[in-house]
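Records of this kind hold a single protein each, on a pair of labelled lines. Below, a sample record shows both lines together.
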Amino acid sequence: MEKKFRRHQDTEVMLLDGEYVIMQMNRQSITRVNEVGGMIWSLLSEARTVHELVLCLQDHYETTYQTAENDIHLFLQQLEEYDLVEIMEVVEKESNPLPYRSAVT
């Protein structure tokens, strides 16, 4: 099963002095992230897989897939520790082929 990540709905974000400040209203906590973290945070407005995030990061920054993947895993782990992201298990649907029909004439 693949996981998708999405930011919690009870958060607000502001840009202050080049850093993104994430405020979680229910816990009254503040978390600061840099430009790259802010970009990832903005992408998490929709549920996304690590693979999707890596591809977006590679579109904006010159980095290898492996480096981007490692950085994103670390960042998501930190967001998880601060309870800033929701994690969803994505169940892949089985393909349902059309029923077999025979043509009889």
About this structure: The chain has a mean pLDDT of 86. The radius of gyration is 19 Å. The CA atoms of residues 81 and 87 lie 12 Å apart. The helical segments are 35-43, 50-60, 65-81.
